[in-house]
Amino acid sequence: MRTHVLSVRTGAEPCVVDITDEVARFVAGQGDGLVNVFVPHATAGIAVIETGAGSDDDLLTAIDDVLPTDNRWRHRHGSPGHGRDHVLPAFIPPHATLPVIGGRVALGTWQSICLVDPNGDNPTRQVRLSFLPG
C-alpha cells in the first residue's frame, strides 16, 4: 500500500475544494486498484460531485438548510453553530474509495473528488490518500 498526505487550505469560510487533480497525480502509473481518500477531521467530509456548474455552492446551501448554524446544537465550542460541523460526517462521510484502472481514477464524466469543509475554525485540513493495488 502506498500513502500520501495532502495539506489543503480551506480558509475561514465553508467551502468545497476539488482535489481530483491531486488524487489523479497520486495514482498516476500505479496500475489497477483502489484509492481511498480520507480526511482525519471530525468536521469535514469527502464528496464525489460535479463542480464548476454550481453544484458545489448548492451543496453548501443544502448543508445550511439541513444543518443550520444556530444554537440548537449541544456541542458548543468554537464559532456559533459549530455543533452542526460535528454532525456533518454523518451526512458527508470522511472518506471515499474509488476504482483505479490503468493508473487513472475511474470517475464519471462530471464527477470530481471534493473536500467539504463547513468549519471556518480550522483553515487547513489534511487528506490522506492510500492506494491499494488490485
UniProtKB/TrEMBL annotation:
Signal peptide: none annotated. Pfam families: YjbQ. Coiled coil: none annotated. InterPro entries: UPF0047_YjbQ-like, YjbQ-like_sf. Transmembrane segments: none annotated. Belongs to the UPF0047 family. This is Secondary thiamine-phosphate synthase enzyme YjbQ. It comes from Luedemannella flava. The lineage of its organism: Bacteria, Bacillati, Actinomycetota, Actinomycetes, Micromonosporales.
